[in-house]
């Protein structure tokens, strides 16, 4: 297992439609394990193969308190409802924004052993599934932000928080 480098926007691989995986073999299982390690190392809850420079239809999901897993060649079976939520991405680390996502989804595909898998997701899982499948189609969350007002810089926000913490916790000079 290896931690792979995350491709950052505007890397062209992030805009390509990923290719379907014809056979789940040892190379795909290694990719899955590497993606899981990379996702964990970057504190993500999902990762798509294009984010590590591999234009194949493979995602990994890692919800809090659950064992991470892969979905190969994922497809939506059903989407229900709509909600607006804050979203960010390991491939666009400096931005976050408000996007519309489904309230719940059902996705089918193959697991890392090539066996059929079906996943029902609500809330964070639903969001992660939609976000990662978007990556397989060359779509980034910034494409789904309705207006520039709903996009914000994450780095600046973090720096502001650190500045606020420093200024409030520093003792005054006397």
Give a structural overview:
This is Peptide deformylase. Removes the formyl group from the N-terminal Met of newly synthesized proteins. Requires at least a dipeptide for an efficient rate of reaction. N-terminal L-methionine is a prerequisite for activity but the enzyme has broad specificity at other positions. Residues 150-174 are annotated as: Disordered. The protein is α+β, with helices and mostly antiparallel strands and 174 residues long. The model is unreliable at 156-174 (pLDDT under 50). The strands form two sheets. The chain has a five-stranded antiparallel sheet. Strands 4-5-8 form a three-stranded antiparallel sheet. It has one domain (12-168): Alpha-Beta Complex (Peptide Deformylase), CATH 3.90.45. It has four helices and eight strands. 29% of the residues lie in helices and 30% in strands. It starts with 25 loop residues before the first helix and ends in a 5-residue tail after the last helix. 28% of the residues are buried.
Task: Provide the descriptors you would attach to this structure in a database record.
Peptide deformylase; 30% strand; single chain; Peptide Deformylase; metal ion binding; disordered C terminus; 174 residues; globular; metal-binding; 4 helices; alpha+beta
In round numbers, the mean pLDDT is 90
Note the beta-strand portion.
25-35%
- CATH structural class: Alpha Beta
CATH-level-2 architecture: Alpha-Beta Complex
Q: Fraction of residues in helices?
A: 25-40%
Total number of strands: 8
Q: Going across the biggest sheet, name each strand in turn.
A: 1-2-3-6-7
Biggest sheet statistics: 5 strands, antiparallel
Distance between the termini: 54 Å
Give me the CATH superfamily.
Peptide deformylase
Domains, number = 1
Name the poorly predicted regions. 156-174
Elements, N to C (H/E)? HEEEEEEEHHEH
Radius of gyration from CA coordinates: 18 Å
């Amino acid at each position: 297992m290896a931690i792979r480098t995350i491709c950052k926007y505007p890397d062209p691989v992030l805009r390509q439609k990923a290719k379907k995986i014809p056979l789940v073999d040892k190379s795909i299982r290694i990719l899955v394990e590497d993606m899981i390690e990379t996702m964990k190392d970057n504190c993500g809850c999902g990762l798509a193969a294009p984010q590590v420079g591999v234009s194949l239809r493979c995602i990994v999901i890692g919800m809090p308190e659950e064992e991470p897993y892969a979905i190969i060649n994922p497809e939506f079976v059903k989407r229900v409802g709509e909600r607006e939520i804050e979203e960010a991405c390991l491939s666009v680390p400096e931005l976050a924004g408000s996007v519309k996502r489904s309230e719940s989804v059902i996705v089918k595909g193959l697991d890392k052993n090539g066996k059929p898998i079906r996943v029902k997701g609500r809330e964070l899982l639903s969001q992660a599934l939609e976000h990662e499948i978007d990556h397989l189609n060359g779509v980034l969350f910034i494409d789904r932000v309705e207006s520039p007002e709903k996009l914000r810089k994450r780095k600046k926000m973090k720096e502001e928080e650190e500045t606020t913490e420093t200024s409030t916790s520093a003792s005054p000079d006397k």
